[in-house]
Amino acid sequence: MPSRTGRLRRVGERLISQFDRLVPAAAHVVAHSSPDLDDNVVALLRRRPEELRVVVLADDAERARARATALGLEGTEIVARHSRLGLWSYFRSRASISSHGLFGSRTRGRRKQSLGLWHGEFGKQIGSFLGFAPQYYDWVPVSSELARTARAAEFMLDPRHIHVVGTPRQQMLTSVPSPPNAGPQIVWVPTYRQSGSGIIRTDGDPDALDSLDLADPALSDLLDDLDATLWVRSHPLAIPRADSLGPRVRSAGNTDLEATGRTFYELLRTADCLVTDYSSVWVDFLLVDRPMIAFCPDLDTYRDDRGLALEPHDVWFPGPVVTDAVDLLAELRTALTGSERDGARRADRAKQLQTAQTDPIEQIWSYLRR
Q: Which InterPro entries does this entry report, sorted A to Z (predicted)?
């Protein structure tokens, strides 16, 4: 049975939806992502048409303004999503951009448009496969026809609303050459097992990620031997780890990266090897054709609890799938010494999962200009 908080939220969303149908639209667009100013929204803002006013609705407006400044987006109009000004900006917008739905995912009425920018394709199961209500958007970008079919099922959305144009965040991987690295860069992007915010749930083994000790001497020795750096990108919903980091291990949280003026995908663009598990990030990383490793200590448990979008995981994933830290370190050495042999598998997966041939940012702004 839904919680009292959940019931109240849905009542509030229905009231907002009804009021939205009464208020005429102005000329501006609103944008919201969770977390605030994710890579999709940042990529869009960096190429915002000068004539188009965009208001960012933020869950933490003060923090979002600091992030915008760090990323070179000074002057971005940012207001608190749940403030009176935030609600009025939404009601008066002629189009809304959101990662998870903005005050719910329903038709807006009065010819107002909604654009859905979910943050990945083909990771863990989402949406209707977990029993969630349908999500409505007028326009959703994806990277392949296979993703179009999957997204239609996940959101229970008419596939005519889903367009194979790619996603804005992918432009950060491909549009600008990577700067030279100071030694090999490894980026580890595990998904969460226990969520600390949002919908509270546990999937897989809550202690699975602890099997890789970030201060392990064996890991430190490997990184020293290869003159490599390991970046750790925790999921935004994950309960923070309390362990210490080794001398060549760095956090890739938003605040850490903002100090260098980068977003996560701008860091990912520099990665010589991606380590993940059930995250959809590997589908985007196909675009740079570099080695990937899936570190899945709890594969069977996670599969039973949450389910994966593409099965068998070890067949679809274009690289080694390992279940213990010793094998992970061995595969990292192979990947970073030029001995990996998965280039053909990556090429095959790219032909299946990365088929868009257009500029997604231009496609989105063109749609919103209509």
A: Glycerophosphate_synth, TagF_C, TagF_N, Teichoic_Acid_Biosynth
